[in-house]
TrEMBL record:
InterPro entries in UniProt: Mem_transp_PIN-like (IPR004776)
Identification of the protein by name: Transporter
Compartments reported by the entry: Membrane
Protein species of origin: Micromonospora wenchangensis
Transmembrane spans: 6-25, 37-58, 64-82, 94-114, 120-142, 162-183, 189-210, 245-273, 293-312
Domain of life per record: Bacteria
Pfam families: Mem_trans
GO BP terms in the entry: transmembrane transport
GO cellular component terms, semicolon-separated: membrane
Length: 313
């Protein structure tokens, strides 16, 4: 199967999810329930199995460094540009930078890595980088600006791994790998079955979410707010063009072989994560621009990722 044709099942399942939601086959809460199933159960199972079976020596230093360089460059530019270009307030700048450079490594990343890259090994490392490094930086900044006294709520940030099943499963997987633990066959078989549902269910849930682009994860309407077309255009360009381009340049500079370079560019080209809107909603900043950025980059990324895969064959 060619890299471009590998995207065909992704497009089909996304369209199936959209059609199922449009025709009412999933019910009013079906899309939200399916999304929670992926986030709470299937996705953590897939990441745990990938990380627990990966020796710590298998963590790719240079590819991860190339991806980290692209993330730092784009998030930093977005953070700074939100103020310089669009006059965003200090409390809005972190979420603007996150919208520009925080990739959807779970909901869309898992099915794309499975179809295009053949496994989720490198993607699992991307998840760890984002949830253990990037997300805490964003949360610290949002907490500081969200508190009237400018304080950082350390307890809330420290409890994030326990409250987030993706982070918890990733950490447990790394711990099992480090300790050399192997799961009982019945448990391993159960998690394997569950993880197999992650990719198709995530794509159907993604398609269903596109039918209601202004709805939040719990089904409430997102506030209209202000989201200038120019802002969305810049965020989309940063996310889908600049970040994979920086990743490609960094990968060339680090002399990555072709398969690793493809993995880095594809992961860097993933769209804005839905967590960006969830963070914005939680702190009451940038909800309008993040909800539309998630929709726009997700819709366009299926084409840009296929193009990147074709160019790097």
């Amino acid at each position: 199967m060619s890299l471009v044709s590998a995207f065909v099942p992704i497009w089909i399942l996304t369209v199936v999810g959209y059609a199922a939601c449009r025709w009412g086959l999933l019910g009013e809460a079906g899309a939200a329930v399916l999304g929670r199933f992926v986030f709470q159960l299937a996705m953590p199972a897939a990441l745990f199995l990938a990380l627990s079976g990966m020796p710590l020596s298998g963590f790719a230093g240079r590819p991860l460094l190339a991806f980290a360089a692209s993330t730092a460059a784009v998030v930093g530019f977005g953070w700074f540009g939100a103020s310089r270009l669009f006059g965003r307030e200090p409390g809005e700048r972190p979420i603007w930078g996150m919208a520009a450079g925080y990739v959807n490594s779970a909901n869309l990343g898992i099915p794309i890595a499975t179809q295009v890259l053949g496994d989720v090994a490198f993607l699992a490392q991307v998840v760890l980088l984002q949830v253990l490094v990037v997300a805490p930086v964003i949360l610290v900044a949002l907490d500081r600006h969200g508190d009237p006294a400018g304080r950082v709520r350390v307890r809330r940030i420290a409890s994030l791994p326990v409250r987030n099943p993706v982070i918890l499963a990733s950490l447990l997987g790394v711990a099992c790998s480090a300790a050399g633990l192997r799961l009982p066959s019945a448990v391993d078989a159960t998690l394997t079955l569950l993880s197999g549902a992650a990719a198709p269910a995530a794509l159907v849930a993604l398609g269903a979410s596109l039918h209601h682009p202004t709805s939040s994860r719990d089904g409430r309407a997102a506030p209209a707010g202000r989201a200038a077309p120019a802002e969305l255009a810049v965020i989309t360009a940063l996310k889908l063009v600049a970040q994979p381009a920086v990743a490609y340049a960094a990968g060339l500079a680090l002399h990555l072989p072709a398969p690793q370079l493809l993995a880095v560019v594809v992961c860097a080209g993933l769209p804005t994560a839905q967590n960006t809107f969830i963070f914005g909603q939680e702190y009451g900043v940038g909800e309008a621009v993040t909800s539309r950025a998630v929709l726009l980059t997700t819709t366009l990324s299926l084409a840009t990722l296929a193009a990147a895969a074709a160019l790097l064959r």
